[in-house]
Amino acid sequence: MKSFHETITASMSLDTLLSLPEFLPIRQQLLTDDFFDLTKLGDVPLRDLSNTWNLPLLCLGLNRVLKLRRAGEPVLYWYGPEPHQFLFRFPGKPGAKTVVICPGGGYSLVWSPGEGYPVAARLNQMGYNAFVVNYRVGDQAEAPNPMDDLAAAIRYLHDHSAALQSDLTGYAVMGFSAGGHLAASFGTESLGWRHYDLPRPGAMMLCYPVVTMGPSSEPTSRSRLLGCRLGDAAAEAAYSVERQVTPAYPPSFLWQCDHDAVVPIENTILLDRALTNHHVVHSYETYSGQDHGTGLADGTAAAGWLERAISFWERVSPAP
After folding, report:
1. pTM (2 decimals)?
2. What is the pLDDT, as a whole number, of residue 53?
3. For the chain, which residues score pLDDT lower than 70?
4. Closest by CA position to 101, among listed 70, 65, 134
5. Which of 151, 156, 124 is nearest to 135 (CA)?
6. Are strands 203-207 and 252-257 parallel, antiparallel or unpaired?
């Protein structure tokens, strides 16, 4: 794997980071206000902002964006006219296969710095093209808004694949936590690819995903997504992925820690059962621990999941 020169470190403050000339034009999209309150945290070093982040991975992703900007590569693309409708492009080898990434955040925010940029950087090191999608969250998260955004982003990528030098044949959709629910929902015919008349993904990569809107759901994701329909049995069934799986669901790689402290393990158990019942090719891995929100998960029991997920994708959706 190639390594990227490290410029951003844990000792750098957010203020300094976002004042880099390469970041100034994209600072509002790079680290969105729904996560970082720069009026309070701007002069605080990254290492002091939280003791739960994997700082080397956070820096890996941000350094990749910085390297691309310094090379004159366009990284920020708008897939629609609204302020939230943007994605970040992480180019691998020209013409290589493509992964679309949906970071999580409980449908309250989009945690791209932890679950988007570092994963995209690692995929670039492996030669793949990656795109990190921003979608509606918070007060705008009620379904189908996030899915409308993801579908619009994927349509944009297909329509501009030549200019983006990305092969969308057999593309993979990856998601984490609530972003895992969004990605997993896109794999269904009723909510996702067929509903929007888009090509079926070649594979899903679902990382500690929210799956159900039933009793085992993650409460914040459930409340944000269902909105005024919270408690409506029909809406809960419609947005419970395990209840929407059909034999046409794409091949899937899913993983979760067995004592996940945020999303109950029953979520991936339910999806594994549904995929099995409908004879969908899939791989389900569980790891010991309570970890959640770890992204690449280096240094945890789940380390190496990305390489295994890519191997699965290459088996089920080989290059033409």
Report:
1. 0.95
2. 73
3. 1-6, 33-42, 50-52, 319-320
4. 134
5. 151
6. parallel
